[in-house]
Amino acid sequence: MPTDVHDSSYYVKCMIGGIFSCGLTHAAVCPLDIIKCRMQVDPKTYTSVGQGFRHIRTNYGMGGFTVGWLPTLLGYSAQGFGKFGFYEIFKDVYKGVVGPEKAKQYQTVGFLVSSACAEFIADIFLCPMEALKVKM
User: Fold this and answer.
1) String of b and e for 81-99 (b: at least 16 CB within 10 Å)?
2) Using CA atoms, how far apart are residues 23 and 116, in angstroms rounded to an integer?
3) What is the arithmetic mean of pLDDT over 8-16?
4) I need a labelling partner for 88 at 20 to 30 A (CA). Which of 35, 49, 73, 81 fits?
5) Are the CB atoms for 80 and 22 separated by under 8 Å?
6) Cα dist from 30 to 46, 62, 79, 106, whole Å
7) Measuring CA to CA, which residue among 2, 4, 3, 19 is closest to residue 86?
8) Where do the H-state alpha helices sit in 49-106?
9) pLDDT at 52
10) What is the dihedral of CA 28, 31, 34, 40, to 10 degrees?
11) d(Cα 124, Cα 108) in Å, to the nearest integer?
12) How distant is the alpha carbon of residue 116 from its chain centre?
């Protein structure tokens, strides 16, 4: 039977879950992101997603689809770490500040504020790797 006890092992599990869910999924779609970015920068050469795949494969080989995958993996893993972990921490902190009755009454607001605070921190974790990826 699940409990509502949030100790450090719970937060660590949330952070690890965030690392896997954000880092791996973003790294997996990195080839599509490469094409999207190139379509934005050079719309005459990259006229569609399919044409973009063909152009990169023909001119750069399959390695052309791996540009920026490591900063993507690391950056979004860090973002997931912050997003999932700090969301749970902020929910508990804010619940402790307002008390259980008010926390239940304004649960949606608590979720919103916790999510916004966690996302702010998570995006700071992401930014250095995104800056590196953009320069590649």
Assistant:
1) bbbbbbbbbbbbebbeeee
2) 20
3) 96
4) 73
5) yes
6) 16, 13, 16, 39
7) 19
8) 49-60, 69-98, 100-105
9) 95
10) -100
11) 25
12) 14
CA angle 125, 129, 134 (to 5 degrees): 140
- Give 36: exposed, middle or buried? Use CB within 10 Å, 0-12, 13-18, 19+: middle
Instruction: Name the token pair of 29.
Output: 């779609």
> Is the separation of the CB atoms in 89 and 82 below 8 Å?
no
- For residues 50-63, give the mean pLDDT: 95
Are the beta carbons of 18 and 83 closer than 8 angstroms?
Answer: yes
| Pair 120, 76: CB distance under 8 Å | no
Q: Which residues contact 81 (CB under 8 A, 6 or more apart)?
A: 15, 18, 19, 122, 125
pTM: 0.84
Given pLDDT bands bounded at 50, 70 and 90, which one contains residue 133? confident
- Residue 7, token pair as written in the block: 């100790």
The answer to whether the beta carbons of residues 17 and 84 sit under 8 Å apart is yes
Alpha-carbon distance of 108 to 116, in angstroms, equals 12
